Amino acid sequence: MMIMAGKKTHPRFKVPNFGAKHMKRVPERWRKQRGVDNKLRIDRKGYGATPKIGYKNAAGFRFARKDGTFEILVHNEAELMAVQSGKNRVAVFAHGLSARKRALLQKMADSKGIKVVNKLRK
């Protein structure tokens, strides 16, 4: 896993007893603990980490991809040209784009040298 300089790592936040035999139905995700006697809620050692403000990244690195670029959502040609002006930006085509519009924007991006994250596969 490539990590940018300056971007912090954090432990995996998981539900307590996730790996227990009788808890196989518990999906791997974070839920705030609310039980009266819950050890994770009262921050006992050895029960796993909880999300805190200290794990937040610096503003310059926040929302960056692993390669150090930032995603810009593109709906039309004007937004695609805005991606070209930034040096460490990549385009992401919006979900609602038609195949015709997507192909047109992709052709424009290829000619301008703009990287598209979710381009059409042929």
What is the distance, rounded to the nearest whole angstrom, between the alpha carbons of the first and last residues? 28 Å
**Helical fraction:** 10-25%
Kindly estimate the percentage of residues that lie in beta strands according to DSSP. 5-15%
Tally of extended strands?
2
Number of helices: 2
Radius of gyration over C-alpha positions, nearest whole angstrom: 21 Å
Number of domains: 2
Q: Detail the poorly predicted runs.
A: none
In short:
The protein is of the alpha+beta class.
Q: Top keywords for this entry?
A:
8% strand, alpha+beta, two-stranded parallel sheet, 122 residues
Describe the protein's architecture and organization:
With 122 residues, this protein is of the alpha+beta class. The protein has 2 domains: 1-57, no CATH class; 70-112, no CATH class. Helices cover 19% and strands 8% of the residues. The protein contains 2 helices and 2 strands; from the N terminus they run βαβα. The chain has helices spanning 77-85, 99-112, and strands spanning 70-74, 89-93. It has a two-stranded parallel ribbon with strand order 1-2. The longest helix is centred in the C-terminal third of the chain and has 14 residues, at 99-112. The model has no long low-confidence stretch (mean pLDDT 86).
